[in-house]
Specification:
3 domains; 393 residues; six-stranded mixed beta sheet; Beta Polymerase, domain 2; 8% strand
């Protein structure tokens, strides 16, 4: 990637508006969770899995998070010595993908440095890294289910009725770098403080909980050397997304959790019944998600391509790639919120534009394509899937 002549970037994503101290601290807390997660699953692990589209998308999100943290810390005047030019050079090197292994190494170094700076600040509570070493092979599915049941049994003391395995375990693609993703469903909100006591009782270690202001409500901890990520959902929200037209387009990842998860602890068949209900309306909800994603794409692509290369990379690999992914998969009555595992998902889709996977890879820049070429490919792919959605109406 060549350096842009316009070297100004807005790491906070809020132009140049000043942020209050509270806003900076809230941003730092939110980003720190993401940075810690990336440190637990190094980018090189994704590269080794061969999922270059996810790697490209992830590096874009990661550099945004790092620059947001550094900008907020600088705003609070708690660090010094890292100039904006140095930061731009580092971000451009990570995003280049000319040498994916080098990009992964530099990304990991950026995360480590950002977390080190965060750890020096007393006013920001950054959870320590979990010392989880990926195994060479995934644990057996039976062991994963047993651990899911143990986690569910502990949280059931606070209420709740269903638990399921999701993500790589539910899709059958888990490996030694996979954490154990558990979805816990309840009728009422589970108190965070009491959840913390239960999680600490399970693992005997410091537990990380997502920030109150984050989109997710989750606990993360390590159990027998495996990272556990427990996300909590209200069954009422699940029902709204399944039964209410328009609701699915706001947060399709909740429907993804229902559609793709593997029920493990569901004695009353509460969760399984929702999967069956979603199956009956999947085409309708999928069309809603696809239409909403395409509308967002049209708005984004009606604007000119940003002249700043970093901002162009963030836009194409982030927002545009996500919405393209969402529209194509939802058109097939499936829900998939982010560009991961596409190399395993897209080949099985019945309705898709020609050479979809290769074109998504070109949008992500996995072959070193220029931003202008990728912008053009994204627009072409958007037009193709839009025609397919209109014809299927």
């Amino acid at each position: 990637m060549k350096h842009s002549s316009d070297r100004s970037i807005s790491p906070l994503g809020q132009s140049d508006r000043p942020m209050s101290v509270d806003s900076c601290l809230a941003l730092i807390r939110r980003r720190s969770f993401s940075l810690v997660s990336w440190a637990e699953l190094p980018p090189i692990t994704i590269l080794q899995r061969g999922d270059l589209i996810r790697l490209s998308h992830g590096l874009s999100a990661l550099t945004q998070q790092v620059t947001s943290v550094i900008a907020a810390l600088n705003t609070l005047r708690v660090i010094s010595g890292l100039g904006s030019t140095d930061l731009i050079d580092r971000v451009q090197a990570v995003l280049s993908l000319e040498d994916p292994a080098l990009s992964c190494y530099l990304a990991s170094e950026m995360v480590k440095n950002a977390l080190t700076e965060l750890g020096k600040q007393n006013q920001v509570a950054v959870a320590p890294l979990l010392s989880v070493s990926p195994n060479s092979a995934a644990i057996p599915l039976g062991v994963a289910k047993a651990r899911c049941r143990a986690v569910s049994a502990a949280y059931r003391r606070l209420g709740g009725h269903s638990a399921a395995l999701t993500n790589s375990w539910a899709r059958g693609v888990a490996d030694g770098g996979s954490d154990l993703d558990v979805r816990f469903f309840a009728d009422h909100t589970t108190p965070r403080a009491q959840r913390l006591e239960i999680a600490e009782g399970l693992c005997g270690e410091v537990v990380r909980q997502y920030d109150e202001g984050a989109d997710l409500d989750a606990d993360q901890f390590a159990l027998d050397g495996i990272k556990i990520d427990v996300q909590f959902h209200l069954m009422g929200a699940v029902d709204r997304h399944i039964n209410s037209p328009g609701a699915a387009s706001d947060h399709p990842r909740l429907l993804e959790a229902v559609q793709t998860s593997l029920a493990v602890d569901d004695p009353q068949k509460t969760f399984v019944s929702r999967q069956a209900a979603l199956q009956r309306v999947a085409c309708d909800r999928g069309r809603e998600v696809a239409v909403a994603a395409l509308k967002g794409l049209e708005v984004s692509m009606a604007m000119p391509l940003p002249s700043n290369e970093i901002e162009a990379e963030w836009l194409i690999r982030g927002e545009i790639l996500e919405r393209l992914t969402r529209a194509i998969v939802a058109h097939n009555a499936k829900f998939h919120a982010y560009p991961k595992w596409l190399h395993k998902i897209v080949p099985d889709l019945n309705r898709q534009p020609e050479n979809t996977l290769e074109r998504l890879g070109a949008v992500a820049g996995t072959g070193g394509e220029s931003t202008k070429l990728r912008w053009h490919e994204a627009r072409s792919l958007m037009d193709d899937i839009s025609r397919m959605v209109r014809v299927a109406k």
